[in-house]
Amino acid sequence: MIDPVRPIELADVEAARGRISGTVLRTPLVKLDLGKDLPDIRLKLENLQPTNAYKIRGAANAVASLSDEERSRGVWTISAGNAGQGVAYAARAAGIPCSVVAIETAPQTKLDRMRALGATIIPVSYTEAWKAAEAHEFDRVDGTFVHPFDNHEFISGHGTMGLEIVEDCPDVQTVIAAIGGGGLITGVGSAVKALKPDVRVIGAEPETASPYAFSLAQGGPSKFPEWEASFVDGAGGQSVTQRMWDRMQPVVDGAITVTLDQVREAMRLMAEKARVVSEGAGALALAAALTGEAGDGPIVCVVSGGNIDLKKFSSLIAD
Q1: Which residues have C-beta within 8 Å of that of residue 145, sequence separation ≥ 6?
Q2: Residues of the chain with pLDDT under 50
Q3: What was the pLDDT predicted at 100?
Q4: Residues 160 and 254 in one domain
């Protein structure tokens, strides 16, 4: 039975910080020096986590929150790469088996890293993976399911990032995070809003897969009609589920849609100015900030991950 949706409370996030403190890094918040005529932007560098992506926060908390009986059955999740690595990392630390229902078109570097962490990979199509995520079940795998975004403990773990953002940038005006399933922005937004209710929390999506912006325009959770796969593989789902719509609505103030060229430029800019290697999804927030739609700042952009093949990265940022 699927647990009912409930708000992420500050106490949930603070408890998560205690559980994951020995596993997860407190990542730096770095100012991106763009000159006086551009917004004041800070980068929250989640690409520096042990799995090079923020998902380890939620995964570590979710696995740590399981009962002994749930752990004894092993765990499984659904992933394009980053959630799978996070859950596999946490499962290995706990000494339990892990399987990942993995999108078969995920970058090879992500698939290899999941295997290296001990995960058993079950390749499926993007459509199959999304259906399993919506249904919270998949009949080809056993064990305890750790949902990669629609899970209270997973989201509470992501909220620990919000605590760090407010502590390190007390005058923050806007926080921007990519939207895939919606767990990242729900967690971060819940923590930030609990501490500073006036801070704007904005989602960023690629034009090829922007179901949240589309859902806002439609007035409710909707399927994006012209979804396309792209190098922004870690964000941009096919639809917004009712459950994630209910989670996001209280803590997300809007969405900014960016082009793939804007994402490439954000990746290039971070590499050039801050020597940061970001995957496509990790650059969405900066691309959104650079549109000017989020104001002058201080704007905190969540660099959600850096799991990208270096040859692919080089080709994307080449002039």
Answers
A1: 75, 76, 77, 136, 137
A2: none
A3: 95
A4: yes
